């Protein structure tokens, strides 16, 4: 018998070939088919041919209990009537039996068993006589030989000590320590034996170089000009018959190509336009593009507001505030006074350090770029002051065309170290003007907005004017802004210290200033601040004040928020008939909208009458004129919502930030009961969200650790399926969806009103019946 080499998966177990299958047959199955181990089948006769029909009947009778169920399909597909079963006494393949799965395997196994057995006998080689070749001499020289007699020692012990009990005890080895220190014995020397060694001599490599200097430089130049035709040659070509034929030949095809380009954009990507209909899995994940943080300016701070630069791509500004409670601010007030809060300008071209720093008198909770002049920035501080900056001297630095702009200073986050100032080359812009302390807000300013240039707000009653205001003033100072504050005071109710103020930044008409006053102003300007708003510094007062529970959202009407309560009101002041004093009108609508503080109130960029509110664990959509209830309200989330924002290209897409650092993307046209995408962005709570619409669509978001994350929005979330977003079919679909929601809400409110009237009529009828019964009883 020829013995094969084993390839085992365990000790003594071979990997069975594909044409057999090891089986475990119970004693009942062995007796049923007549293949009992060591009785019907032995090592000498291990083969048994089973009838295929008997095996199939056994699988039908006992189903999954049958021992042949693992090879059911092989048995059903077996072409012959008899199947070979082999008794494996040695458990070669891990079981006591194995089944041949093909007729070829059956014939091969039976054919091998009929061959004569061949035994391989392994014989050990016989020892040969040693033939010396000279190596025994080297072995003899290197071998160790004893040159002195061996020492003999005799150890004895008394017989009575054998088998005697022994007791051990602990002993502190402090003084009773014997050290065996090596020493040099002068009487004994070691003779150094000679040793044969080999040495190879190689050349030493060295590197050398030489520089040839040109000692006779010469200035050389060359001049070239294009070759052209003379006037006579040009005239001959124009009059040639060959040119005329060529123009007549190609003119129709050129005109046809121009018409096709005018009718259809040949460069549009049809696959991207198809969107999700392309087939396959569509990537909808937000991909982080860059993250910005600074060890000095972002340490122990959080980001309160984010704004993209309106005219310079890749520039984003963030306001850094202290991450501390009111009690911690009071305890560390001295330390906070030494450190000026900052607004950082980050650039995609340099994520290591900010490009510009805006110095603030206090923590800024909101700031905005002027729409008509992006170099002017307004901010609202925690102490109620309104601040103005002018960064026109640093525009080149933000655009990347100049390493630094204007006079640059540095700010140390701990101490005013002169060495630290010299190392820092980031320019710091001092604010141009701040509002008067006695005339400003009395609580933190939570939002600021610029009014359109064509708006004129009356300082008497808050009435909004038309284009006369736009036509009567110089464009560079056509700027009105409104800002508001909201402060929750649990001891005096939720609407304490709430006010809305309008501010005008126009220069007052004054006489010519003396030259001495101008010199004094230059001497009092150590920060080289531009005098754009010098007429407003510390004397700036609001144009109009509106008191009440307000929070601004739109330039004409205000959608207002409180602790989960949505208020819709008008800022126009009304006159008291008795006293003649002006007072704020009562809210038009008051609705309990959310189960927590509302942190976002924003109008849709596509539908100006649709409002998004985010608060607590839900968000909702509202419509002007239908403020009795929400058009749509999301289910309660497992995690609290912290901020929300509309998509700038898809009217039905919302970005919602959560307290666990995750971002929810809602597509209301796809599904409104759950978000379309949930993705973790950071490890802490998301504080702000601001999308940016350009060739590449980015979403800037910040966390509570002071880190700014810029993620790239996948094209499936911003692609409007049209060359113009305003003419996208998504606009029509969203309008139809909102109209259906309005109809549903009006129908629901109408049904509620009808139910209320029915309830009142039933109560009146019951009351009338009681009165009738009492009257009849008295009669």
Automatic annotation (TrEMBL):
GO terms for cellular component: inner dynein arm. The keyword NAD does not apply. SUPFAM superfamilies: WD40 repeat-like. Residues 757-769 have a biased composition (Basic and acidic residues). GO terms for molecular function: dynein heavy chain binding; dynein light chain binding. It comes from the Eukaryota. InterPro entries: Dynein_IC, WD40/YVTN_repeat-like_dom_sf, WD40_repeat_dom_sf. This is Dynein axonemal intermediate chain 3. The lineage of its organism: Eukaryota, Metazoa, Chordata, Craniata, Vertebrata. The gene is DNAI3.
């Amino acid at each position: 018998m020829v013995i094969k080499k084993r390839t085992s998966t365990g000790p003594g177990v071979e990997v069975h070939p594909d044409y057999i299958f090891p089986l475990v047959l119970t004693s009942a199955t062995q007796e049923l088919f007549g293949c009992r181990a060591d009785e019907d089948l032995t090592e000498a006769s291990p083969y048994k041919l089973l009838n295929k029909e008997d095996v199939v009947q056994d699988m039908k009778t006992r189903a999954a209990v049958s021992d042949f169920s693992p090879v059911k399909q092989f048995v059903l597909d077996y072409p012959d009537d008899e199947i070979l079963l082999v008794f494996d006494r040695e458990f070669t393949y891990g079981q006591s039996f194995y089944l041949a799965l093909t007729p070829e395997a059956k014939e091969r196994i039976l054919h091998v068993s009929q061959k004569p057995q061949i035994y391989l006998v392994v014989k050990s080689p016989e020892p040969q006589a040693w033939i010396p070749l000279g190596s025994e001499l080297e072995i003899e020289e290197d071998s160790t030989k004893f040159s002195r007699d061996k020492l003999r020692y005799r150890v004895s012990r008394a017989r009575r000590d054998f088998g005697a009990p022994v007791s051990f005890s602990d002993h502190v080895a402090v003084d009773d320590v014997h050290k065996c220190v090596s020493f040099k014995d002068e009487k004994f020397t070691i003779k150094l034996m000679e040793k044969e060694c080999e040495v190879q001599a190689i050349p030493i490599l060295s590197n050398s170089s030489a520089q040839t200097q040109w000692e006779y430089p010469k200035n050389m130049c060359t001049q070239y000009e294009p070759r052209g035709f003379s006037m006579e040659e040009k005239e001959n070509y124009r009059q040639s018959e060959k040119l005329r034929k060529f123009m007549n030949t190609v003119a129709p095809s050129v005109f046809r190509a121009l018409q096709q380009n005018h009718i259809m954009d040949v460069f549009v990507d049809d696959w991207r336009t198809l969107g999700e209909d392309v087939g396959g899995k569509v990537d909808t994940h937000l991909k982080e593009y860059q993250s910005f943080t600074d060890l000095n300016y972002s340490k122990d701070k959080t980001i309160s507001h984010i704004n993209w630069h309106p005219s310079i791509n890749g520039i984003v500004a963030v306001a850094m505030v202290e991450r501390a409670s009111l009690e911690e601010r009071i305890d560390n007030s001295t330390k906070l006074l030494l450190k000026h809060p900052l607004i950082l300008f980050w650039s995609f071209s340099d994520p290591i350090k900010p490009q510009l720093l805006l110095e603030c008198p206090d923590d800024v909770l909101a700031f905005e770029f002027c729409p008509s002049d992006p170099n002017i920035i307004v901010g609202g501080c925690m102490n109620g002051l309104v601040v103005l900056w002018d960064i026109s001297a640093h525009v080149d630095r933000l655009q990347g065309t100049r390493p630094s702009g204007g006079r640059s200073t540095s700010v140390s986050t701990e101490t005013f170290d002169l060495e630290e100032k010299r190392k820092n080359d980031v320019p710091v812009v001092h604010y141009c003007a701040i509002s008067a302390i006695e005339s400003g807000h009395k609580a933190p300013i939570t939002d600021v907005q610029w009014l359109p240039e064509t708006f004129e707000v009356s300082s008497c009653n808050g009435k909004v004017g038309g284009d006369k205001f736009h036509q009567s003033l110089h464009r560079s100072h056509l700027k009105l802004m409104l800002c508001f504050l909201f402060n929750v005071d649990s001891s005096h109710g939720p609407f304490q210290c709430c006010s809305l103020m309008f501010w005008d930044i126009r220069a007052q008409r004054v006489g010519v200033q003396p030259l001495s006053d101008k010199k004094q102003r230059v001497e009092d300007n150590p920060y080289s601040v531009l005098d754009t708003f010098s007429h407003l510094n510390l004397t700036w007062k609001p144009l109009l004040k509106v008191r009440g529970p307000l929070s601004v959202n739109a330039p004409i009407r205000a959608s207002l928020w409180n602790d989960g309560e949505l208020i819709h009101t008008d800022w126009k002041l009304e006159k008291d008939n008795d006293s003649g004093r002006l007072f704020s009108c009562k809210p038009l609508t008051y609705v309990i909208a959310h189960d927590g503080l509302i942190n976002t109130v924003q109008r849709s960029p596509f539908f100006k009458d649709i409002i998004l509110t985010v608060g607590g664990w839900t968000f909702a959509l509202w419509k002007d004129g239908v403020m009795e209830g929400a058009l749509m309200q999301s289910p309660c989330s497992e995690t609290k919502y912290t901020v929300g924002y509309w998509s700038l290209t898809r009217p039905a897409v919302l970005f919602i930030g959560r307290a666990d650092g995750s971002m929810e993307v809602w597509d209301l046209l796809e599904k409104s009961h759950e978000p379309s995408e949930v993705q973790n962005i950071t490890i802490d709570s998301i504080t702000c969200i601001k999308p940016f619409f350009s060739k590449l669509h980015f979403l800037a978001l910040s966390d509570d650790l002071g880190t700014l994350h810029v993620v790239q929005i996948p094209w499936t979330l911003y692609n409007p399926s049209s060359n113009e977003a305003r003419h996208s079919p998504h606009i029509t679909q969203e309008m139809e969806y909102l109209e259906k929601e309005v109809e549903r809400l009006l129908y629901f409110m109408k049904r509620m009103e009808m139910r209320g009237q029915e309830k009142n009529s039933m109560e009146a009828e019951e009351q009338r019946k009681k009165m009738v019964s009492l009257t009849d009883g008295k009669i």
